[in-house]
Amino acid sequence: MRKEGRFRTGTTEPIKVDIEKWRKIRNQLAQDDTWVLRKLSEVDALVVNSEGSMHHNLPRALALAALIDISHEVGTPVALMNSSIQAMDDQLISEILGRLSMCHVRERRTFEAVEAKTSNAVLAPDLAVLAMTAMTPAEREMKAIDGRKCIVAAGVLVDPNAVRQTIQAVRACDLEPTYLSIGDGREAEIISELSTEEDFNIIDSGQITLERLVSELSGAAMLVSGRHHINIFAMLCGLPFVPLPSNTWKIEATIEMAGYPISTTEKIKDLEESIRTVHKDRLLYADASKNGFIALERMMRKLPEKVRKWTF
After folding, report:
1. How many CB atoms lie within 10 A of CB 116?
2. Which letter, b or e, does each residue of 209-230 get, where b requires 16 or more Cβ atoms within 10 Å of its Cβ?
3. Closest CA relative to residue 23, chosen from 74, 77, 95, 79
4. Which strands make up the sheet holding 121-123, listed edge to edge?
5. Is the separation of the CB atoms in 242 and 150 below 8 Å?
6. Per-residue pLDDT, 1
7. What is the mean pLDDT of residues 53-71?
């Protein structure tokens, strides 16, 4: 959703979808793709990673819905994992959720949206939290905490004008921006052009290890980010951050779960004030960030046991 003067975000309204046309396509695929049918009949269960997929009736969401429906039809139990479900056709998502024997949702907003549609919903944070528990970031040094390095990561809805204004807002706060590029969509191209205009350094995530990523975050004063997983990495490191909106409510909802004391900055004109607020009380926000990860880690502990008890 694009509004003048605001960061791009995902709408709460679904894109209209023709359910009958979807059924015809689903039935045709089930008939033609004999390999998928054979594989589904050979396995004990199907685990679907729905991260970044089940929203706004997008093609990949409709494709996963078809796969789940076909799997159920051939008698193979399905677990949907790591879900943020938003703005899906109500009839379609109700049917698909009813096909699941387990539905892991990674934040409370999705849980509240689906709990009436399935009795198999499990609320636990993003699976990335489980992986990050095995990582031990170094203690942040005072020269980093009191330094001027501010990492910026715009997010999946990267917009050249918004990124330019974000870089300028960081500099207006007497901080020095370094852009962390994930590189999906047109981000790499957009950021490469902007870095020439605005003169900032780029960290290419595709060229560094996770350990190096943690080191880069730990060595910064703060972060401005519309990247869900980068925000979780920030909490792992105890790095204060200003969150930006994304294509679903995953960022706001995860921050709510973690108890981090600042939500997403929606208006571009408010960003400078948000950065100043977090930087001024950076020790307070650093503690809140670290405590946020501890809270997510605590909530995550029940998920492995739920999966172990999953009967299919």
Report:
1. 10
2. eeeebbebbbbbbbbbbbbbbb
3. 95
4. 46-49, 78-83, 102-105, 121-123
5. no
6. 58
7. 95
List 104's β-bridge partners, or say none.
122
Predicted local confidence at residue 72, as pLDDT: 95
Reading the block at residue 184, the tokens are: 């999906």
pLDDT of residue 311: 65
Mean pLDDT of the 207-235 span:
97
Percentage with pLDDT > 70 across the chain: 99
Backbone angles phi, psi at 54, to 5 degrees: -85, 70
Sign of the alpha-carbon torsion through 60, 65, 71, 73:
negative
pLDDT 10s digits, 105-150: 999 999 999 999 999 999 999 999 999 999 988 889 999 999 999 9
Cβ contact 26:71 at 8 Å = no
